[in-house]
Amino acid sequence: MSQGTLVKRQFGHRARLALSPAGVRAADDQAHAARTMWNLLHAWWRMMPKEERTLANADAAIRQARKDIGFLAVLPAQAAQAVLKTYFRAWQNCWEGRADAPNFKGRFRTVMSVDIPQGRDLNITRVHRRWGMVNIPKVGRVRFRWTRDLPVGKRANAENRITGARLIKDALGWHIAFRVQTLQGRPEPHEGPDIGIDVGVTVPIALSDGETYEHGEWLTGKEKSRLLHLEQRAAQRQRHRRPGERTSRRLHRTYDQIAGLRAKAKRRALDWQHQTTTAIARTYGTVVVEALTITNMVKSAKGTVEEPGKNVAQKSGLNRSINGEAWGRTVTMLTYKTAQLGGTLVKVPAPGTSRRCSACGFTTPGSRESQAVFVCKNPDCGWSGNADHNAARNVLHLYRMGLALIPAAGRAVVRRAKRVKPAAAR
Ligand SMILES: [Zn+2]
Questions:
Q1: Which residues make Cβ contacts (< 8 Å) with residue 71, sequence separation at least 6?
Q2: Higher per-residue pLDDT: 301 or 174
Q3: pLDDT > 70? residue 274
Q4: Distance in Å, CA 286 to ligand 1 centroid
Q5: What is the pLDDT of residues 213-238, one digit of tens each?
Q6: Every domain of the chain and the residues it spans
Q7: Ligand 1: distance of its center to the CA of 362 in Å?
Q8: What is the DSSP string of 248-283?
Q9: How large a percentage of the chain has pLDDT more than 90?
Q10: Chain centroid to CA 185: how far?
Q11: At 154, is the secondary structure helix, strand, or coil?
Q12: Is the pLDDT reported for residue 160 higher than 70?
């Protein structure tokens, strides 16, 4: 095998951890200690004169803090180092215009997480078809759901290995996100056909060949009524709070239950997205999408004054929060999945794709009868059909006309525009 045919890939793999109640408490304590460490570091930074804000000084400061403050000792030394590294990287990101300046992390606003920077500490083994075991520093051996073949044991080598992990707690509990590094053969160019995709208004994803990908509701009727009940209860308790009163344990518990149901819906949506994008990347060689702007996305739900959107109520609330981030994620998934399978993803600037007739090519005002049906007003054509498929065919047409705006092929990296910062901001 020559190096030329192999490509290095780095990706994350997230698995659910089966922690005991004591394990959950230990992980919680570590995450709280990591957050406290961050806050101490930030306080130290703000207090220090500019020239003394060095990595070495910060390192000395956190070592001292670990000695002075008892509960910080629950955080493994490696994880404390990782906090330091992340904090300095946050400033770097800020100075390079990619992010806002780091700030204090509040207890309830922050995602609980602990870094395990060294892959060799993990000592991963597979113990069952569905279960693996991982070593978590200061917690012990923990089972996790084995849903993907990981390069561990005999299958691990210098190129294929797990380089580290991160513990993350969400509303469904503690998870572990492995950082996986592999060396894989470069895929053969995908011979499949070209396809245009439109974010449907009536269907989630419409393809130019007439295929649609749809999904049901993310929550069952029972789950939805429970969510509504919990939200009403939370609102009721909020109304009866006196100003300045602390949030009660019961209210926090209700918030957690609400977050749990929302996370469940989101996980189902994510699962559907993975299945859909994998199917598309397997079938088609070139995938063309519309280069959407945020304003377009808002419009697609609300509609315009002349052309109000349908089902606006259904597209608000929970659905909106999932749909809102869904398209960007669909494109991200398609970008790396097509690249992995030898295909390409192309973005085209697509104003008016929903108003142009894909049969005759005329953009005649009033052609879109409703959100669902397109009827061409050109007297020589008169074509009518599904409005979303029509838009998808227009997206493909724009690509074939050579209007590709951004060649996104094989590029899973999101490039952000650099903001110009005034020199005084440093
Ligand atoms: Zn027409």
A1: 29, 32, 33, 36
A2: 174
A3: yes
A4: 26
A5: 888 888 999 999 999 999 999 999 88
A6: 3-185, 194-220+273-407
A7: 6
A8: PHHHHHHHHHHHHHHHHHHHHHHHHHHHHHHHHHHH
A9: 42
A10: 26
A11: helix
A12: yes
What's the CA-to-centroid distance between 327 and ligand 1, angstroms? 28
Distance in Å, CA 310 to ligand 1 centroid: 24
Q: Are 304 and 315 in contact (CB under 8 A)?
A: no
Contact 395, 196 (CB under 8 A): yes
pLDDT at 91 over 50: yes
Q: How far is the CA of 356 from the centre of ligand 1 (A)?
A: 8
Residue 175 has a pLDDT of 95
> Span 276-299, mean pLDDT?
78
Ligand 1 ion local residues (Cβ < 5 A): 357, 359-360, 376, 378, 381, 383
* Per-residue pLDDT, 247: 85
Q: 379 CA to middle of ligand 1, Å?
A: 8
CATH of 194-220+273-407, one of 3.30.420, 1.10.260, 3.90.920, 3.30.70: 3.30.420
Q: Given strand 6-18, what is the order of strands in its sheet?
A: 112-116, 161-170, 173-185, 6-18, 140-145, 131-136, 125-126
Give which of 17, 56, 98, 43 is closest to 419, Cα–Cα. 98
CA of 215 to the centre of ligand 1 (A): 30
* For residue 295, pLDDT beyond 90: no
At 392 the three-state DSSP class reads helix
Q: Which two tokens stand for residue 61?
A: 């400061």
Ligand 1 center to residue 391 CA distance, Å?
13
Sequence-ordered strand ranges (E) for 328-415: 344-348, 373-375, 384-386, 406-407
Q: What is the pLDDT of residue 386?
A: 87
CA of 373 relative to ligand 1 center, distance in Å = 13
Ligand 1 centroid distance, CA of 396 (Å): 16
Q: Residue 228 Cα, ligand 1 centroid: separation in angstroms?
A: 46
**Residue 108's pLDDT band (cuts 50, 70, 90):** confident
Q: How far is the CA of 202 from the centre of ligand 1 (A)?
A: 21
CA of 64 to the centre of ligand 1 (A): 74
In this predicted structure, the answer to whether residue 1 has a pLDDT above a threshold of 60 is: no
Position 371 confidence tier, pLDDT thresholds 50, 70, 90: confident
pTM value > 0.85: no
Distance in Å, CA 388 to ligand 1 centroid: 15
Q: How far is the CA of 394 from the centre of ligand 1 (A)?
A: 12
How far is ligand 1, taken at its centre, from the CA of residue 4, in Å?
49
